[in-house]
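Thread title: Can someone regenerate the structure for this chain?

I was given the following input by a collaborator and told the matching structure tokens would be attached. They weren't. Posting the sequence so someone can regenerate them.
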Amino acid sequence: MEFEEMQVIWNSQNNEKLFAINEAALHKQIRRKSGSVNHLLTFFEGMMVLGNLVAGGLLMVDAIMGDGSTFQFVIAAVYLSYAVFAVIRRLWRRRVEVRFEETIVGELDKALWQIDYHIRQARSIAWWYLLPLALVVSVNFFLTGKLIWALGVLLVLVPVGYFGTRWEINKLYIPKQRELEAMRKTLLAPEVEV
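Best answer:
Regenerated them for you:
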């Protein structure tokens, strides 16, 4: 049952619109949407932590086992630093989320805050994650005499990551954000008598 269907009830005796909200159904729908946003955000953060830990760990073991160069250790340290940074950001986000009230509007505001946070994170990932990592990898390839690989990493990874992230935001996150904003606007709209 959609939100709009729950909101308007017709009174056939008086031919007047009565505005009523089935609070239980509305709360269930908001919790479902909020849960999907929370799941999306948790998955994103988990992949950032796990992916960076695995990559950093494997690179560190490879550098130690093979008498690696300084840049191999730097790349491993960069990946591990990103994992630590992702954990710190997750803890900060969880602390901020506690401030929202446990009401229908509070849960909707929390879901909106979460999707806004995720969109900001996704938009900035090219600058604080992808570009520095691509530069470190390119410098490593350049110093080992693999100039073609260095240029290839920069020319392929950065644009693909940047435009891929923009596509993901526009196709997945912005529609969710608009849907939540429409629900909030409808929920808080003043009742109008016809």
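The two ends are 24 Å apart (CA to CA).
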